[in-house]
Amino acid sequence: MVARKIPAPIVTVESEPFWNAARQGRFVVPACAACGKTHWYPRAVCPFCGAENIEWRAASGRGTIYSFSVMRRAKEPYAIAYVTLAEGPTMLTNIVACDFDTLRIGQSVRVAFGETENGPPVPLFRPV
């Protein structure tokens, strides 16, 4: 199977700490210092309580597939999925390094960073 080229992500002021950690091979999630809840996508204001005190916490890199779809008509087939992280938030990502026919909702996955075209690595997930 040919690996699909992933374009470099757009790095914003709010997401820069995430991408800096990814460059170091670390997976982190934003969390509100006021209410303690983690969230995804990175933003300057907590989506739960409105506080502006966001910190970055080390994440386990574990999650479960909430939903997925396999793009078979693409030149290089790929699986896109919503993965619910062990820390709580759900993120849109790709599932890699597996037989797409064996994927299932509720399946355990683990983060594996993948290269991008001239940018920081992105979090992808592979079945455990």
Structure description:
The chain is mainly beta. It has a single domain, classed as Beta Barrel (OB fold (Dihydrolipoamide Acetyltransferase, E2P)), CATH 2.40.50. It has 1 helix and 7 strands, in the order αβββββββ. The strands form 2 sheets. Strands 5-4-3-6-7 form a 5-stranded antiparallel beta sheet, with no helix packed on it. Strand 4 and strand 5 (90-95) form a beta hairpin. It is globular and about 45 Å long. It starts with 15 loop residues before the first helix and ends with a strand. The relative contact order is 0.23. The mean pLDDT is 95.
CATH topology: OB fold (Dihydrolipoamide Acetyltransferase, E2P)
- List the uncertain runs: none
Give a short account of the largest sheet. Answer: 5 strands, antiparallel
Label the overall shape.
Answer: globular
